[in-house]
Amino acid sequence: MKPVVFNNTVLRDGHQSLAATRMTTDMMLPACPILDSMGFGALETWGGATIDSGLRFLGEFPFDRLDALKKACPKTKHMMLFRGQNMVAYAHYPDDVVEAFVRTSAKHGMDIFRIFDALNDPRNMECSIRAVNAVGKEAHGTICYTKSPVHTVESFVKLGGQLEDMGCSAVVIKDMAGLVPPYITYKIVKGLKDNIKIPVIIHTHETAGMGAPTYYAAIDAGVDAVDTSIAPFANGTGQPDTARMLSMLDGHPRKPGYDLKKLAQLRSIFQKIYDELAFYENPKNEVIDTDALIYQVPGGMLSNFRVQLKEQKMEDKFEEVFAEVPYVREKLGWIPLVTPTSQIVGTQAMMNVKFGRWKMFTPQAMDIALGYYGQTPAPVDPEVRELARKISGKEPISCRPADLKKPGMEDLRKQLRSKGLKDDDEHCVIYAMFPQQLEDLYTKPRDAFKLKSPADRKPKAAAVPGTSKFKVTIDGVTKNVEVSQ
């Protein structure tokens, strides 16, 4: 039997999940020669939150990191997480901007684009898939796993077939919350392997303690590759540790032959980095959290909202808020909980508990109800949609949201030139998503991006970056509201 392939996530999801995405490029480089020699299927080196956090907190221009890591790891394919029409941000962007981002990323060495949509709407993935294929790279169509009455083994297998038909070179099951049980994993993977011809990959988190058993079931079902990380940037809210996964497969006919001595060297390197980043770590992220199973939400969402509820003086409402999450999900069409929908649903649930259901309707939740994020897995509740229409003054749409967007690249070039910044494609696509952060990169003193030391450690976890600011109407009275994200 063919050995299963391990992809490695330590340079992206590993530190995003366990150290607030604070690993710098300079920290990564000493490990690169060993990582590149391991024979992993791919190294996840970019995408997700690393671009935002790199700009905002580390003072790094994103393409510089990609260049450095590509040079340091030339033999192994590089992989990134890509949010479809959202690219690596939180809103939909015009097709020409998405195409420029893909084209530029490929020019700088990106090989594999894992393309997903928060609603699992294939229309929000088609532009990215087409753009990746146009530059001769690999488009991996990614399915966000979630639980609801409308999400079934059959629906996931059907979506996998759609992604294959759209031109994807692989299908990935993305279990962002670590909630897929081993037996269900087996059925989904087996269903995909029986119905599509392209490789099947699975990505999960060890949040609830099911990650490694889930991988074992997927490997038994014929999955082609799994994602692992390297301790201490592994397990907990991260991916299962590579050495641990290898030990679990002892005696299995599909066990791969990755070098345990090299893995031990890598662990030593990353332990030093982990110690340096102690300020940004949360012990709760390092242990199994069965609350994720109870509330059916990603572990990161749980920890973020513990902080937010404290800020809102609602600590005693924890159970009530998370009991409200499935209600909001159902009314908004049983949407999956992944960036940015996890933040949107969580915030709306919190507002429902604090002010009464839909008394404070956030603009983002209204946009989901009206179709501006795409087609929801199930129909939006008609009364909720009508309320969103009345409050927002916007009409519901059924088209692909990006069809309403005008081309944006030329306007971005003009804006950058007016600010005295470079107007190449690299700066245009970053500015489109993170305009203030890009300006800060060139105007703030370097000390502004200095990492906190372990001695600065505070009793509570570091705050989650970013806030949502918006106006809301409560019983006819308009108020300004700011909510942490």
Main sheet specs: 8 strands, parallel
Total helical segments = 21
Shape type: globular
Helix/strand structural class:
alpha/beta
With strands numbered from the N-terminus, the spatial order across the biggest sheet is: 1-8-7-6-5-4-3-2
| CA-atom Rg in angstroms | 22 Å
- Report helical residue fraction: 40-55%
Strand content: 5-15%
Which consecutive residue ranges, at least 5 long each, have pLDDT under 50?
A: 460-468, 472-477
Please count the beta strands (DSSP E, at least 2 residues each): 10
Summarize the topology.
Elements: E1 5-8, H1 10-18, H2 25-28, H3 32-37, E2 43-47, H4 50-58, H5 62-72, E3 78-82, H6 95-107, E4 112-115, H7 126-134, E5 138-144, H8 153-165, E6 170-174, H9 182-195, E7 200-203, H10 211-220, E8 225-228, H11 242-248, H12 260-276, H13 291-295, H14 299-311, H15 318-331, H16 341-355, H17 363-370, H18 382-392, H19 409-418, H20 425-433, H21 435-443, E9 467-474, E10 477-484
Parallel strand pairs: 1-8, 2-3, 3-4, 4-5, 5-6, 6-7, 7-8
Antiparallel strand pairs: 9-10
Helix pairs in contact: 6-7, 6-20, 8-9, 9-10, 15-16, 17-18, 19-20, 20-21
